[in-house]
Amino acid sequence: MLFMLAAGGAIALFVLAASAIARRENGQRPEPPRRDSVAASLLFHVLAAGGTGDEEALRQVRRGAGLAAPVTRGIDVCSWAETYASAATPQQRSALLETAAQLVTSRSGPIPLRQYAALLDLSFGLGFHTDALAKLRMVYGFDYIDHAKDARPRSADRGGGGAPLFERAQAPRGELLRLLGVTAEASRQEIGAAYRRLVLQHHPDRFHGASAEDQSAAAARFIEITRAYEELMRP
Prior knowledge:
The chain is mostly helical. It folds into two domains: 35-155, no CATH class; 168-232, Orthogonal Bundle (Helix Hairpins), CATH 1.10.287. Helix content is 61%, strand content 2%. The protein has ten helices and two strands, in the order H-H-H-H-H-H-H-E-E-H-H-H. It has helices at residues 2-25, 35-49, 54-64, 77-86, 90-104, 113-125, 130-140, 173-180, 188-202, 212-232; strands spanning 145-146, 152-153. Helix 2 (35-49) packs across helix 3 and helix 2 runs antiparallel to helix 4 (77-86). The longest helix has 24 residues, at 2-25. The N and C termini lie far apart (80 Å).
């Protein structure tokens, strides 16, 4: 009887070990985070990009967004937003972007450019164009700081305010197309692809730790191409 029990235990251990080896050889990976965890992580990152501390960001995600799911730090917003979009309805995607906009407006004054860039990444990853974020900016009345112009809000460039947040660009269409490096015959899809390619090159996060001059130049370029894209993509 003892021999049979020992043999049975040995067989069970062998089966468990063989199963673990097979999973490793087949390249099986842990299951991806649940949708609520992805949403919580995205909102946490957007808040952190604006300088909010970890504990306060977690509190806002829990109370402000009603998400108690675990949070992953140091994520890539675009790829995680795409993951969320693949498992969410259009209404849920829209609600997540609006929740992010509501959370950033909880602070007074313009938001940092890095946080606005995170919102742009979230919007693109969820499958929206910048006009979706533009509408939310008009609804919730928030602006961003232009560090390329001595940290002045964009309204300061027009005599101290009073102008709409999303005033139409005055540059000709040909100039806007040139800024994005596309031809006059470019489709909306081609314009979007060109913009995303330029964003990867000039995103403020790529110049973290660089000289102040390089950071200002990158921020100015980022804002320039974003405004050109926003204008070209208007209906």
